[in-house]
Amino acid sequence: MIWLETIANGILLGGLYALIGLGLGFAFGVMRVVNVAQGDFIVAAAFIGLYLYPWTPVHPILVILPVALIAFGIGILLQRLLINRVLGHDQIPQILLTFGLAIVLRNGMVAWFGANSQSINVGNMRFWGFNFLGMRLGVLPVVVLVIAIVLFAALRFWLNRSRMGRIIRATADDHQVVQLLGVNYRNVYAVAMGLALALSAVAGVLLAMRGSFTPYSGADRLLIAFEVVVIGGLGSFWGMFIGGIVLGVTQLLALKIDPSAGLMYGHIVFFIILILSPQGLSSLFSMKVFRK
Amino acid sequence: MSLLKVENLDVFYGDFHAVRGVSLEVNEAQTVAIIGANGAGKSTLLQAITGLNTQKRGAVTFEGKDISRMRADLIARAGVTMVPEGRRLFGSLSVEDNLRVGESTKRKGPWTLQAVYDLFPRLGELRKMQSSTLSGGQQQMVAIGRALMTNPRLLLCDEISLGLAPKIIGDIYRCFDAIRQSGVSIVVIEQNVAQACHASQHIYCLLEGRISLEGDPRKLAMNDITAAYFGTEQHS
């Protein structure tokens, strides 16, 4: 039973990991931009959440709404003012730009907030639990998983059904041809980056509610995001979700066996999957991001 | 009045000087063909007109307005669109979604989803299909329909018969009359000289980036066209 409970908790954690990967994977799927600063944006979002949650009405968990909105605005500015300037066949300038941004952001946060470990306090909810099939599960992790699933499904639905979603999918397929049809792909990219950062920001705040973070946590977050995206198969939607769950379950099982292992076994599983199936798990499910 | 006027246009494709001092004109409701061998600069010329290629100098005037420095999406909104070489559909989108991306110019006009389905009834039956699963001819219809959905005044078609069966090429060229009657001028790039002469009221022949011959295809001698196409002899 204890193992089943560990797996269940791994799935709950994995949903959050999937959400961390979603922003990175979405930006890559639409723009072929690898945002190396994604991890540090996630941490920055956690800091914004830390300062906003005392003023959030009804329940502290609702702080994800204003933080997502702010992150959306920052994403649009980031794309318009910086990343759009270095777009081209060569991907190195984008990587260098976001890498530099990551360093600035991280050290800026250390200077501003200090290097102490922080956490967003959701009050009693942290200690609530319930019995399910003989397992004891926490309410907060379940809420977090539900939020992750809702965001995955909502993004998917919006991409498939809305006018803007259609234009985003078309731009992801061919950003040159959309211009012949009157679409300014730079604007589409700005919206996509806004969404990517908003999704990451939600992940960052939820992570800060479940655990703690410091200004240096960004590198770990980025690594998780990368692994989720690669395990899922670049640009695969539900593949990413499964990738997150694989990582979450592996990590908690490993911690049960070897309490000092940390994230190591997750990285090993990532490595094994990469060797066995370089296309990621999605080649097994063949469900591409923007494919119906 | 001419709808499109290109004067003394030079275009570079990377370091390559692909189009050299080309001037041409397209009138309202006219079909113009541009012929020429591979690498003559035909596609680069169209890319420059649509704004996809920005390494150019010279004047491009559309409806009396200079569009040579305009951004590609604004040129499309002004009423110039292109069916690109190789169709380049949005492969992960359905047929109908492909067509509806064409609404992005927000131009009003006769071309709606229903009008496109009336022109190509087959597309109506395939509207829910993913576009990458279609045959070449069907994909070409989607590409033309998608361009029409922008309600253009000028439709540029880059090699639309490439790799298609002769019967399908015939079908596609037959619908040009209906398109022209809706008030759209057409420029086609063709490698098939006979097809180009048959479909157009005026042809331009490109040779190594320059116009080597132009005129009414019914008045030009086939020998002169062949010579201008391959550059085999001097001509006036």
| CATH fold category name of chain A | ABC transporter involved in vitamin B12 uptake, BtuC
Cα shape of chain B: globular
Approximately how much helix is present in the residues of chain A?
55-70%
Strand percentage of chain A, roughly? under 5%
Total domain count of chain B = 1
CATH topology value of chain B: Rossmann fold
The CATH fourth-level homologous superfamily of chain B: P-loop containing nucleotide triphosphate hydrolases
Give the CATH class of chain B: Alpha Beta
Radius of gyration of chain A: 19 Å
What can you see in these coordinates?
The complex is a heterodimer of chains A (292) and B (236). With 292 residues, chain A is an all-alpha fold. Chain A contains twelve helices and two strands. Chain A has one domain: Orthogonal Bundle (ABC transporter involved in vitamin B12 uptake, BtuC). Chain A has helices at 2-31, 38-52, 64-81, 92-113, 139-161, 163-173, 177-180, 185-210, 218-232, 237-257, 264-276, 282-285, and strands spanning 129-132, 135-138. Mean pLDDT of chain A is 88; it is low at 285-292. Chain B is α/β, with parallel strands linked by helices. Chain B has a single domain, classed as P-loop containing nucleotide triphosphate hydrolases (Rossmann fold). A six-stranded mixed β-sheet of chain B has the order 6-7-8-3-9-10, with helices on both faces. In chain B, strands 2-1-4-5 form a four-stranded antiparallel β-sheet, covered by helices on one side. The mean pLDDT of chain B is 92. At the A-B interface, helix 6 and helix 7 of A face helix 2 and helix 3 of B.
Blueprint of the fold:
The complex is a heterodimer of chains A (292) and B (236).
Chain A: H1 2-31, H2 38-52, H3 64-81, H4 92-113, E1 129-132, E2 135-138, H5 139-161, H6 163-173, H7 177-180, H8 185-210, H9 218-232, H10 237-257, H11 264-276, H12 282-285
Helix pairs in contact in A: 1-5, 1-8, 1-9, 1-10, 2-3, 2-4, 2-8, 2-9, 3-8, 5-6, 5-8, 6-8, 9-10, 10-11
Chain B: E1 2-13, E2 16-27, E3 31-36, H1 42-50, E4 56-62, E5 65-66, H2 72-78, E6 80-83, H3 95-101, H4 113-119, H5 121-125, H6 136-148, E7 154-158, H7 166-181, E8 185-190, H8 193-199, E9 202-207, E10 210-215, H9 222-230
Parallel strand pairs in B: 3-8, 3-9, 6-7, 7-8
Antiparallel strand pairs in B: 1-2, 1-4, 4-5, 9-10
